[in-house]
Amino acid sequence: MKTMKDKNKEKTVLITGASNGFGMEFAKLFAKDGYNLVLVARSTERMRKLGHYLQDQHLLEHICIITADLTRLEAAREVYQEVHNAGLQVDVLVNNAGAGVHGMFFETDLEREKAIIQLNITTPVELTKLFLPEMKQRSDGKILNLASVVSFMPSPLMAIYGASKAFMLSFSEALSNELKDTGITVTALCPGPSNTMFFRRAGAAHTRAANGSLSEPEEVALDGYEALMKGETRIVSGLKNKLQTTSSNLMPDMALAASMRHLMEEDPAEEETNPTGTAKYDEEEITQ
Ligand SMILES: NC(=O)c1ccc[n+]([C@@H]2O[C@H](COP(=O)([O-])OP(=O)(O)OC[C@H]3O[C@@H](n4cnc5c(N)ncnc54)[C@H](OP(=O)(O)O)[C@@H]3O)[C@@H](O)[C@H]2O)c1
Q1: For the segment 138-171, what is each residue's pLDDT rounded down to a tens digit?
Q2: Fewest CB atoms within 10 A around its CB: which of 41, 130, 202, 204?
Q3: CATH number of the domain where residue 208 is located
Q4: CA distance 6 to 28
């Protein structure tokens, strides 16, 4: 009789942003359960190294590495085409790649923000549009979208990022309802501030949020993975974040905005504790 792991050997997950942070942790979790992997990001070498390591550890049948800058308008279609050219079918789609930019909207760079909207919203929507019809034909599929605790509240100093995550939560929950009873589930994962490269890349390493208590990416990814496997519509990762998002329902939006602004301002104590704003995967080997 086939075990669950044997059955998964016939299944493939596509993970965007698989070269770092949560995406790398998702790749490890899916590989452990026997899924074939399609890893998508810009850092080809990091993904190759991760792919080799996971193939050795778990004897996977296929690992496909796709180098793509998902801020490009054509990116989703090109990724879809590469998956087809490789003769693979995507059973699970993980829309994980994302980025933010810190600063007052009247000062931040519009081109960078348009790229973030493309990366955080348009590309995941387009990937979903492209892969969903095949899932629908098979009456089988799972989609995991990265939202955030900021999906529930305005985010001063990260206005575009926060709005993009509100979009992803709303989009996921609407799709989840539309796809009820089709065999396809859509899950939104809402992490709080976490120990990845995210804050540093957003130019927000010196904020109170980045220097407060951070979730570990392994734990966040596991929460998302388990919720996805159960077909849950929404998972807020971590008790503190669950309490924050629940209490956000009771607070006026402008009070939430003020509290978020405080978190996203410079942490005066930061210079001493974390002068370079290092994150977990900065120098670390991807196979640890
Ligand atoms: N960390 C947090 O506090 C936090 C909290 C809530 C939600 N999230 C969300 O979680 C997701 C993953 O973030 P993370 O924390 O793991 O951040 P991360 O450590 O910065 O990783 C981001 C991943 O996205 C990829 N990526 C970034 N820009 C890309 C582009 N233009 N094209 C293709 N891939 C790109 C990166 O790969 P390359 O650089 O190799 O392209 C990397 O693999 C994001 O959607 C983020 O918004 C993060």
Answers
A1: 999 999 999 999 999 999 999 999 999 999 999 9
A2: 130
A3: 3.40.50.720
A4: 17
Give 80's contacts (C-beta < 8 A, 6+ positions apart).
127, 130, 131
> Is pLDDT of 31 > 60?
yes
Give domain status of residue 222, yes or no: yes
Assigned domain for 278 exists = no
d(CA 230, CA 232): 6
User: What spacing in Å lies between the alpha carbon of 1 and ligand 1's midpoint?
Assistant: 39
Element (H, E) at 234: strand 234-236
Query: How many angstroms is it from 213 CA to the middle of ligand 1?
Result: 19
Count of the separate structural domains present in the chain: 1
Q: Which atom of ligand 1 is nearest to the CA of 43?
A: 40
* Lookup: tokens for 211: 């220097």
Atom of ligand 1 nearest to the CA of 22: 16
Output the CA torsion sign for 245, 22, 264, 238: positive
193 assigned to some structural domain: yes
pTM here is 0.95
- What residues are paired with 64 via a beta bridge? 38
SS (H, E, C) 36-52: EEEEEECCHHHHHHHHH
Domain limits for position 132: 4-273
Catalytic residues: 161
The number of the ligand 1 atom at minimal distance from the alpha carbon of 115 is 31
User: Of the candidates 196, 205, 207, which has an alpha carbon nearest to the alpha carbon of residue 284?
Assistant: 196
Q: Does any domain span residue 156?
A: yes
Percent of the chain with pLDDT over 70: 92
